[in-house]
Design goal:
Length: about 375
């Protein structure tokens, strides 16, 4: 599967869209918003550029990206007023894969511009915004073009499913699991780790060339606490997704001992769909939760970026309204994974799959907390 062509958050503003189901990401990023604000303040005071370039990498299509741009804008406006430096213009670039629903962002911009200007009627600032489709695993912008780069909950997505998950005969090596699990052979975790190293090092090199000297980056992404890849954190959510598939699958072995997977859909028997077992076994997610040490090692190897801050924090688990935590997680994961699952299996399994997923998350949370962690990094171009 070509990730760049198939992967995108669910667009629009419908019931299953990312725009409607990204509140968990918003809560988590709000926990470290003070770090973003502090970094922007330090950057602006150190450089006071007349034209400041800001990129949001992995912007998706919901309200979260405009919310953080608004915070950055207001921070710079406040500082520029204090130091009597009022000529700054803003260049804001929204980046995601070409399949992203950029139209939803563009449709929101007129109201967003109005909001930014409502307190600046006498001297409205110049702000220019545009979309930059493409993978951030590679160059996107000219040399020394950006002052500030922000990326929230995007860098745990790899550029591809690691090819080493398959042997020389294209046989999957991680059968029954969509990510690293207890039964995965060691080659699986090694393949994911190597793919992260390749991708993250390319990301750092690319951004280093695009940032001005003294430019900053704030990166927020999922990770893990220690060297073990399997824990009751982010990897456990993928284990639950594997179980959710299993609840929709029964093995139907034919007389010739060839087995198929029978997906049991809600409704009549005519709604049942049948797929070959290798279709399920070949589904792996292009995700990786790195450790603190892995992140530090890649930054050190790149050499031109100084790691000024690296903090770990837990995701909030508070329940909103009548929805359980499992339901909140299920709709969030569906908004992210729907494009890939639909591409691989078809759309008919989605409702049943994520109903099971939400239920299983709630069952596990009743036994013991699932404690996924995130990292926030602050990097400076030296």
């Amino acid at each position: 599967m070509d990730v760049e062509k198939a992967f995108h958050m669910t667009g629009g503003v419908g019931k299953t869209s990312y725009a409607k189901n990204s509140s968990l990401q918003k809560k988590a990023s709000d926990k470290v918003k003070h770090i973003i604000i502090q970094t922007v303040e330090e950057l602006y005071l150190a450089t006071t550029p007349k034209s400041i370039g800001i990129a949001d990498l992995g912007c998706s299509s919901g309200p979260n990206t405009l919310s953080i741009i608004k915070d950055i804008f207001q921070t710079i406006q406040g500082i520029s007023h204090k130091i009597m430096h009022h000529s700054t213009e803003f260049r804001v670039y929204f980046n995601d894969l070409p399949t992203n629903d950029f139209n939803s962002i563009f449709k929101a911009l007129p109201e967003f511009h109005k909001l930014l200007r409502q307190d600046r009627k006498n001297c409205p600032p110049s702000i220019f915004m545009g979309g930059y489709p493409g993978s951030f695993y590679g160059r996107l912008f000219p040399n020394s073009y950006l002052h500030f780069v922000h990326s929230s909950y995007s860098l745990h997505w790899l550029s591809r499913v690691p090819p080493a998950l398959y042997d020389e005969h294209k046989t999957p090596l991680n059968k029954g699991c969509v990510y690293i699990c207890e039964s995965s052979p060691s080659v699986v975790s090694q393949a994911y780790s190597l793919q992260f190293q390749e991708d993250f090092s390319l990301f750092l090199r690319s951004r280093s060339e695009e940032l001005v000297i003294g430019g900053r980056m704030v990166l927020i992404f999922l990770g893990r606490r220690g060297p073990e890849h399997v824990d009751r954190g982010n990897s456990f959510f993928w284990e639950i997704l594997s179980r959710s598939f299993a609840t929709l699958v029964s093995q139907n072995c034919m007389d010739n001992n060839e087995c198929t997977l029978l997906f049991l859909f809600s409704g009549s028997n005519s709604d049942q769909g049948e797929i070959e077992q290798d279709v399920f076994d070949s589904y792996d997610v292009h995700f990786y939760a790195p450790s603190k040490e892995e992140i530090e090692e890649e930054v050190k190897k790149e050499g031109s970026l100084k790691l000024e801050r690296l903090e770990m924090f837990e995701m909030d688990k508070g329940e909103d309204g009548s929805e359980s935590y499992g339901t909140q997680v299920a709709v969030a994961v569906r908004a992210i994974q729907e494009s890939m699952i639909s591409h691989h299996f078809g759309e008919r399994i989605l409702d049943s799959l994520f109903e099971n997923y939400g239920r299983l998350v709630d069952e596990e949370m009743a036994k013991e907390d699932i404690r996924p962690i995130s990292f926030v990094l602050v990097l400076r171009k030296i």
